[in-house]
Amino acid sequence: MRPIKHPYLPIYYLSVVLGLLLLAGCSDKKTVPIYNTPEYKQIERKLNAVADTTDLKHWLQVYRQSGNRMGESIVLRRLGRAYRVDNQFGRAILAHKQGLAVADSICDTMEIVNTLNELGTNYRRLGAMYLATSSMTLGLGYCQQWSDTTAAAFKSQLKILNGLGKIYYTIRNYKAALDYFRRSLAGEIKLGSAFGMALNYSDIGRVFRAQNNLDSAQFYFQKSMEQKQLINDEVGMALIRIEYGGLYEDRGDYAKATAEYDKAYITLMAHSDRYLRLRSCISLARVYIKRQMTATAIEYLQEAKMTADEINSPGDRSQIALLYYQIYRKSGNTAKALAAYVDYKNWNDTVMNLEKLGDIQNVQIDELMADNTRKLNYVRKDMDRMRKQQESGWLVFTLIMVGMIVLLAFSYYLLRIRTRTLAAYREFRDARVRFFANISHELRTPVTIIQSAGNSIESQTDNQQIRDEVSQLQAASRRLLHLVDSVVDITNISIRPVDEAQWCHDDIVGYVRMLVEAYRHEAAKRQIRLVVTSKRNKIEADFVPDYVDKILGNLLTDMLHHAYNQSDLYISMSIERRMLRLELKDRGQGMSPEVVKDLLKPYDSKNTSEIYMHVGLNIQAVQAAIRAMGGDIKLKSKLGEYAQFIITIPLRHGDHDYPRLTEQKTLHTPAALSPADADMPPVVEAEADNKPRILIVEESAQVARYVADQLKDHYKVFFASNGEDGLHKIRIAAPDLIITDGVLPVMDGYQLCEGVRAQAATCHIPIVMVSSDSSVRGRMKGFQAGADAYLLKPFRADELLMRVSLLLRQRRMLRDKYAGSVPVVNDADGQAETTDRTPDFIDEVQQYVDSRIGEGDIDLADLAARFGVTRATFTRKVKQHTGLTSAAYITSRRIRKACELLQTADMTVAQVAEACGYSDTAYFIMVFRKSMNKTPKQYKDEWLKP
User: Of the candidates 528, 590, 538, 531, which has an alpha carbon nearest to the alpha carbon of residue 560?
Assistant: First the structure.
């Protein structure tokens, strides 16, 4: 079907695309976060492996010389952090201030917030809590006015909140500290950050410990330890151990406290951050003082004092002075105790009254406050600018949306017109299809009556003139039916597109070979040799099996009709420029150039010679099928010499992966056989598996393998190449079903059927005859010979499978019908079956077994030899009839005899056992109970019970 195109649709699609492009162009590129740019991420990745201050200075120089302000700000932030780890707080503060200025110049809000956080941490480590609070508060202000809602921006805000909590904890404002820590913890839980959760859990625990709420403190320290263990943070776990030690110390368990502090000290000794080592030293000194181990305490205090002096930490100096005061006071050294106490008060006042540090610090505060004011003004202006840009963007977006709605409404109107047009076209198309279908039906009915009447007249008269006239009448009726079918085929193929489900991907060489086999019988009548050749043994292609059937069927029928007797008809296949090339060439009447020119045109009797007039519709059906598969057909001919059809079809139809023919359950033919593997496959051994066994009797190895391909997934298949060999294998292997061709060497398929039906051991086996003889006489001959089903070549795989399945199922139903209510006996497979008498073969077996039941063991080999088969064949045939193995069947007959004797004869159990062939009464009782679910005595008592 050709699609209907509307002239306004391209304009609509172009308008939509332009609208989307305009909408994308309205976004403000300046509002894209700098930290999300590829350049920023590349710089971060490059500096992740750089931790040494010397290397960071090198990169700082590189970025400054190249004018890369973004790289410069990132390096300065990392350089300040490296200085802080080395306890060079002055340099750290200077680097972070420079980085803050650079970040401000490029409006990098993320870098501004991160640098303010680092700067606040520097001041907090130095004990300058006012400056630390100012930096952190300024950073929080940026976060609150920041429009970025990404996880990275949220993480920066959480760091600020945690830093403010630490500051308030240091100045003993526990309520404020707890509020900030909990806000930060809630955000870290939302982000799922194990490190952030661990940090906040430990900080909250320290607040509770400072408030002497030890149980709550221990709970939060434990939660922090769990998160640290998840990320394997050894330094973090060491800091939590210091907190554990503090809890033990508060509870008076100094030994456990010492153990925890010592583990933390060992871990932190390998860390370069002396601020963290200082905490473990002070804790160990304090607990050793409480344990009266003054000498050890002094060693740790000396190390702690040296570190505190190096990093200039007033808070830690205050704690160290207090511990010295406690040592000297206990030892009675009043002068040193007083001096230590004075140091403690001085450093403690420094921590609690940092606002009175002096003029220098006040100047720094003033500068910082002015800087903060300037930054806040910038942030306000930036926010105003972004707000105005957003408002402008919304206005443009609204206009675009209105325009798109108008375009969509117009396109909907066009779509409705197109839908109505398509509906009218489909209605007209379906009406035309229905018309031809109805015409076909109406013509078939009277033609069928004419043919039936003609057959009746022909069979009832001996007048040769009448028989000749009836024969002409039937030939005309068959031609009429053929013409009707051709018209319907042309209509269906031309009007209706090919359904995707009809396509398959398989070996088309084998498929064509199989189709040609169906015409060998007709060709043999005129001694025409069908020759199929291919440059490749196998060609994988996409095709529609039904269409290929129509193409080859129509062409071969017409070419056989016009070919000379005793000639050759060639069918060749090859690949040419990713196309399948299929050629059919005969030696016959041929056609004139005028006929060749007009034959492929739409059918018109005026343009067709009388000889080829009936071919016109066939060629049109062929041409429609080829074009539906995207191919083409050409015709070459020379009058009186030959006719040649050249068909080209694409090897691939789109990018679809179509199923194999066997997956579609339609025709499938294996690849062409080479001379080496053209022989029949060997006979399959009887005990190969438990699948039903099918014998295929077929002269052609290709056809035999084709049939085997259809059956191999469900049945065990073996082969014979002629009727005599097939009959021999039937008697030896006793298959469950036979598939045979009608025309076979040595002994044909009809004689084979008669031979199978003549033997009692094989007469029950279902037979399916597959033949290319489509005549009524051929069918009747097959059924008279004993075939249960008759299929024409080519046949559908699903039809073959259904026929085989139904015949085997009918055989099982027949077996079940003849099975009576006999004792249940477990066969060798452990399956419970019942058996009684069945016809023919099993009747003879039953009579023989019953006559020798009382003689003891029955030799199965002798029993099989009596029926002229091997023991394995005998066992298989018994199971086919009864569902039981030979041994289980004999046992069932013995138990049946025992039941009859127990019901009618006045005999003891031992006598019954002996009469049924059992010399061991105990063994007889066991077998009887296994079969009847009761002992012989129980069975007899129940039977005689009134």
Answer: 528
Residue 661 in contact with residue 797, Cβ under 8 Å?
Answer: yes
CATH of the structural domain 253-357, one choice from 1.10.760.10, 3.40.50.1820, 1.10.10.10, 1.25.40.10: 1.25.40.10
Q: Please state, in angstroms and as integers, the Cα–Cα distance from residue 817 to each residue in 288, 550, 690, 827, 893, following that order.
A: 99, 44, 22, 20, 18
* 57 vs 829, more confident: 57
Structure letter (DSSP) for residue 760: T
Give the class (CATH, top level) of 32-141: mainly alpha
Residues 465-474, mean pLDDT to the nearest whole number = 77
pLDDT greater than 90 at residue 739: yes
Bond from prior residue into 946 cis (ω within 30 degrees of 0): no
Residue 139: name the closest of 194, 192, 77 by CA: 77
Three-class SS of residue 603? coil
DSSP 3-state percent helix, strand, coil across the chain (nearest 5): 70, 10, 25
End-to-end alpha carbon distance in the chain? 84
Report whether pLDDT(665) > 60: no
- Element housing 321 (H / E): helix 314-331
What is the rounded average pLDDT for all residues in the chain?
78
Check residue 271 and report its DSSP letter.
S
pLDDT of 358 over the 70 cut: no
Which of 789, 792, 816 has the alpha carbon at shortest distance from 802? 789
**3-state class (DSSP) for residue 130:** helix
Task: Tell me what percent of the residues of the chain surpass a pLDDT of 70.
Answer: 78
Helix (H) or strand (E) holding 585: strand 579-587
* pLDDT tens per residue, range 509-536: 888 888 888 788 788 888 999 999 998 8
Q: 284 near 300, Cβ under 8 Å? A: yes
What residue type is 162 in one-letter code? N
Q: Do domains 253-357 and 498-664 have the same CATH topology?
A: no
Q: What is the pLDDT of residues 563-582, one digit of tens each?
A: 999 899 999 999 998 899 99
Categorize the per-residue pLDDT at 816 as very low, low, confident or very high, splitting at 50, 70 and 90.
Answer: low
pLDDT of residue 740: 92
Place of tokens 């046949």: 795
Rounded-to-integer distance, Cα 472 and Cα 480, Å: 12
Other Cβ atoms less than 10 A from the Cβ of 650: the count is: 16
pTM given for the model:
0.37
The kind and range of the H/E element at 411 are helix 359-460
Q: State residue 631 phi and psi, 5-degree precision.
A: -105, -170
| φ, ψ (nearest 5 deg) of residue 125 | -65, -35
List the one residue out of 64, 72, 142 whose CA is nearest residue 106: 72
The topology under which CATH files domain 675-815 is Rossmann fold (3.40.50)
Higher pLDDT, 691 or 323: 323
Secondary structure (DSSP) of 809-855: HHHHHHHHHH--S---EE-TTS-EE-----STHHHHHHHHHHHTGGG
707 Rama sector, left if φ>0, alpha if ψ -120 to 50, beta otherwise: alpha
| Burial annotation 309-340 (CB, 10 A radius, 16+ → b, else e) | eebebbbbbbbbbbbbbbbbeeeeeeeebeeb
- Tokens 């022909």 locate to 458
The closest of 279, 276, 222 to 247, measured between CA atoms, is: 222
Q: What is the pLDDT of residues 848-894, one digit of tens each?
A: 888 888 777 787 777 877 777 777 778 777 777 777 788 888 888 88
What torsion, rounded to 10 degrees, do the Cα atoms 739, 745, 749, 750 define? 180
Which residue, 737, 424, 468, 484, is CA-closest to 618? 484
Mean pLDDT of the 454-478 span: 75
The CATH homologous superfamily to which domain 498-664 belongs is Histidine kinase-like ATPase, C-terminal domain (3.30.565.10)
As a CATH number, domain 825-944 is: 1.10.10.60
Q: Where are the domains of the chain?
A: 32-141, 253-357, 498-664, 675-815, 825-944
Count CB neighbours of 51 within 10 A.
13
